[in-house]
């Protein structure tokens, strides 16, 4: 029985799952802790592809943290964490997002503005002088590919490519571009996913000037494929909006081959969303050429527009 | 002209000054930035002793940050930072305190629960493969000695002693215990200091359940020396309380040889302070045997008592 749970954000993506697994391994093997990587949801199709490729089991899904201390990866805000986060002590954080965090005591809090938490962890393993097992290196490489869209997202930093190249080598991936395209495409098989899963599979909640804004993102190789299911998606967004008290639900539909996105917006504040990107919404839809990063290209202009 | 100011907290202590100097050196020499270490106040007697010993000038004192980006060391809370902190972007933080921080974007935020920021920085120089100049190593060694009271404070961690030993060696300090005692004693020559300087020389403001609590600390080799000036100290505390709107002013008078402290409390909430430490206050004074660390032994019980 572990005495420290390690987990990433809700609606886990590949970086969240891989970083939780790698952090638990690092804490147990370099720092003699007794931690367990868990998840706040089932792996998405992309993560499942990577886990299968590297012959690893998905972390156990928890609803509640039941250890007195926890270690967060790939998030630091309570709204994105386990529901009972206020009842446990955060002993450490590895993250690469904006910070909204309070603690009662000093802790390990390592936040770096790099493309993925996996890139940070690659450095932490090096610093600790700990070898990364091949399958874990494969998951970390997959996480970098996923978060940076194969080093093409504007969130990519000069530290990500060397980390990816080194991790791919450790993992025995001969051509990380070829593997990366396979991985990303595995995440875009949308036909088998429900509308609920598409809007929630990679969604986060943000407080923007008092408004509760839900922002989901779907990667695809054909935006029209997604908008063919528009009525169904809008209904699911509307249902969740009412059920969870969101003011606005924004779905970012991203073409990973062209590096463009289309937005679909449901709920209040449509004027603010339009103003944020300098576009007009046509029945809640707008095209955003060149936009692929929620963190870097979607949340900051929305924050500014909601505070204007 | 630097484009990134690096500074520690108000009422700077040796760790704040040394860490700002070392961080600027690290950023400029390992990361090609153009930063300048500055301070939010003049060095105290202890820091002045260390600067003189290692033949270094004190950092320039600023009232306002005038670069768009800043780098914080040894603090992360706005209440302990430069007055116009809300107008600038925090690009990075090296700290070892509890966290109360929000940002609009990801940043470098390295917080570790070690005895001093200097200990963290020793690791950062190692990680960057950058040699530490002898005089800077002397300042960092002084910072560890200061923050851990020569490794005797309960804030001391297993990482601090090896860092101190290594830094002392780099600095050419033959016997760091002997140097450390000299350094700490240099900070306790209270006769030449005004009451205002004694209460404010190492003071921080905390919001405890809505109450504004000012906590100053004075190191001495004889507690009675300080309490001989009690009337004068209480008057200064009362004046500052009224002027700055504090609800409570607590002065922690610490005997660095015996590792004990006496409290002097002015203002409201005397019952809560008494409850926090399970003592009775006699005319605002109480003895706290074994208490030397504001961070670890004073603020946490006060926080609990104010929230009870």
Automatic annotation (TrEMBL), chains A, B:
SUPFAM superfamilies hit by this protein: DHH phosphoesterases
UniProtKB keywords: Hydrolase, Manganese, Metal-binding
Pfam families listed in its UniProt record: DHH, DHHA2
This protein's name: Probable manganese-dependent inorganic pyrophosphatase
Statement: the UniProt record of this protein carries the keyword Manganese: yes
Similarity remark: Belongs to the PPase class C family.
EC number, as in UniProt: 3.6.1.1
Domain of life: Bacteria
Species of origin: Weissella halotolerans DSM 20190
Cofactor(s) required, per the database record: Mn(2+)
Reaction equations catalysed: diphosphate + H2O = 2 phosphate + H(+)
InterPro entries, per the entry: DDH_dom (IPR001667), DHH_sf (IPR038763), DHHA2 (IPR004097), DHHA2_dom_sf (IPR038222)
Source organism phylogeny: Bacteria, Bacillati, Bacillota, Bacilli, Lactobacillales
Molecular function GO terms recorded: inorganic diphosphate phosphatase activity; metal ion binding
């Amino acid at each position: 029985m572990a005495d420290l749970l390690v987990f990433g954000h809700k609606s886990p993506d590949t970086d969240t799952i891989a970083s939780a697994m790698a952090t638990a391994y690092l804490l147990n093997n370099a720092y003699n802790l007794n931690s367990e990587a868990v998840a706040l949801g089932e792996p998405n199709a992309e993560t499942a592809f990577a886990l299968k490729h590297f012959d690893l089991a998905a972390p156990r899904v928890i609803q509640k943290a039941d250890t007195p201390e926890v270690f967060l990866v790939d998030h630091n805000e309570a709204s994105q964490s386990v529901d009972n986060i206020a009842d446990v002590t955060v002993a450490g954080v590895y993250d690469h997002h904006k910070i909204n965090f309070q603690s009662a005591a000093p802790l390990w809090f390592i936040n770096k503005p790099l493309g993925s938490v996996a890139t940070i962890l690659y450095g932490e393993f090096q610093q600790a002088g700990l070898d990364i097992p091949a399958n874990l290196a494969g998951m970390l490489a997959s996480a970098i590919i996923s978060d940076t869209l194969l080093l093409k997202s504007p969130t990519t930093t000069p530290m990500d490519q060397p980390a990816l190249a080194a991790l791919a080598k450790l993992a025995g991936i001969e051509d990380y571009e070829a593997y990366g395209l396979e991985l990303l495409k595995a995440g875009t098989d949308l036909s088998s996913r429900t509308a609920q899963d598409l809007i929630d599979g990679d969604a986060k909640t943000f407080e923007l000037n008092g408004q509760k804004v839900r922002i989901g993102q779907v990667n695809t190789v054909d935006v029209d494929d997604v908008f063919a299911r528009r009525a169904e998606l809008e209904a699911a967004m509307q249902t969740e909006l009412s059920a969870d008290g969101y003011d606005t639900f924004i779905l970012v539909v991203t073409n990973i081959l062209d590096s463009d996105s289309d937005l679909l917006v449901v709920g209040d504040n449509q004027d603010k969303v339009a103003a944020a990107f300098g576009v007009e919404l046509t029945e809640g839809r707008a095209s955003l050429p060149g936009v692929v990063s929620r963190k870097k290209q979607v949340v900051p202009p929305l924050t500014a527009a909601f505070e204007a």
